[in-house]
Structure formats: C-alpha cells, structure tokens
Design brief:
With 243 residues, the protein is an alpha+beta fold. Helices cover 29% and strands 30% of the residues. InterPro entries: Bact_HTH_transcr_reg, Chorismate_lyase_/UTRA_dom_sf, Tscrpt_reg_HTH_GntR, UTRA, WH-like_DNA-bd_sf, WH_DNA-bd_sf.
C-alpha cells in the first residue's frame, strides 16, 4: 500500500471540515492519531495540517492541538513564519521535483551568498517546487548546497519529495536544526531561470537564502530559492519582547 501524499490528506480533511464532520471550534485528531489512520509518517501529517493552516481552516498551538477556525478556505498562499518549527515546515507543503544533483566549487559570487571560502566544494541539489503537484505553475526553484559527505541524502530526497532535505540530514547524520538564518531580496528573473519557472525574463521575484545551523552554530545546509512574485509571498509576525 502506497503512503498517501500530504496533499491527499489535506484534501480529505478539508472536505471533512466543509461537511461539518469537524465543526468550527472543535479539535482535529492528534498527529499520532492521523498518522496511524493514514498509515503514513508524522512528517507527512504535519505537512497536511500546515496546508490547512495556510488555507485559514485551522490554528495550531503547542499542547492545545489543531483547532478548526473556518469551514471555508482562503485561496492565497501566504505563510506565516514565527519560529524555527514554522520555517522547518515552510517547504513541506510543496512537492519537490528534483532536476539535477552535481558537485560544484563555489565561485566568488556563490561564496558570497553561501558565506564560505571561494572554491569550497558542495553537493548541489536543484529542484522545482510545485504547489500541490501542479506541474503547470512552478512555485519556485531551489538550489540546496550541502557537504559532499552527505551525498546519500540525494537519493532519499528523490524518493521522499515531501520531506525537507534538512530533515533527512538530521535523520541520517544527527544534525538537528537549532537556528535558521533567512535573507530575502527582490530580484529579476534571468533568462535561464525564466525557462525553468515558465515566466518572462525580467519578471520580479523573491530570492530567499536560508542557512541551517546546528546546536554548535555550524552551517550544514544552505538553500537558495527563487519565487516569481505573483506566485508567492511571505508574512512574518513580529512581537515585542518582554525585556
């Protein structure tokens, strides 16, 4: 029996909420209960619940479960990032379609982006990101740079397209995410990238660089993503500290 994709689980839960099986104000089954019901991984369940959260159907709070907030989804994709856990799930709702893997040496420009020495060797995993498996409209293109020692992760990433590469590294090599540093800038899409993303050259886009750090503050992965502006936006919630 094949494991269901997170999008299938999200669709079933959306229909259950719309039908009144889970009325507004009630709490959905726990992640473990859904995992057992769908016979899948907890990560896949989290991705499905995250999808519902992005649609405005549910809210999620630690130790309080997943609460139904609306019976009707909103249409826009506007992720809210408030914690490392939010960002760790950030790409999980988009199917990764791997395009290539190769070992490269960072030139001066790339070394500046990755904050490494020029000539540093990386395994680069290049992928399209597809919203809900809709290959007609790619949400973005992501190049993930990891140490060549992690080459075995590439095969697993191809087999499990709904899991983040950082999660696969953590599972196989024990590098837990302690911090993610993120930078966002506006760019114009190049001719080469325009062909990949099926947009016009010069289209406005967001370039997002994320550095994944372990508990010792060492970077074990850097991702560089390009998203056409019309297909993607980011919302951040900022709170005043108590200090």
């Amino acid at each position: 029996m094949n494991r269901p994709h997170f999008a299938e689980i999200a669709r079933e839960l959306t229909e259950a909420i719309a039908s009144g099986r889970y009325p507004v104000g009630t709490v959905l089954p726990t992640e473990l209960e859904l995992r057992d019901h769908y016979r899948t991984s907890r990560h896949t369940v989290r991705a499905a619940l995250h999808e519902l959260q992005q649609l405005g159907l549910v809210s999620r709070r630690k130790n309080a479960g997943t609460r139904v907030e609306s019976a009707r989804p909103r249409n826009e994709f506007r992720p809210t990032l408030a914690s490392v856990d939010d960002l760790a799930q950030f790409g999980a709702e988009h199917l990764r379609l791997m395009q290539s893997t190769d070992v490269i040496a960072a030139d001066r420009d790339l070394a500046g982006t990755l904050q490494c020495a020029e000539g540093t060797r990386f395994l680069r995993i290049s992928s399209l990101r597809i919203d809900g498996g809709n290959a007609r409209t790619p949400v973005g293109w992501t190049d993930v740079y990891i140490a060549p020692d992690y080459a075995n992760v590439a095969d697993t990433a191809r087999e499990q397209p709904d899991r983040l590469i950082s999660d696969l590294i953590e599972e196989r090599y024990g590098h837990s995410i302690a911090e993610i540093q993120q930078g966002i800038q506006a760019v114009l899409i190049s001719e080469e990238m325009a062909k990949r993303l099926r947009v016009e050259q010069g289209t406005a886009a967001l370039e997002i660089v994320r550095r994944y750090l372990d508990v010792e503050g060492k970077s074990f992965e850097v991702s560089v993503s390009v998203h056409p502006a019309a297909r993607f936006s980011v919302a951040m919630r900022l709170k005043r500290s108590n200090g």
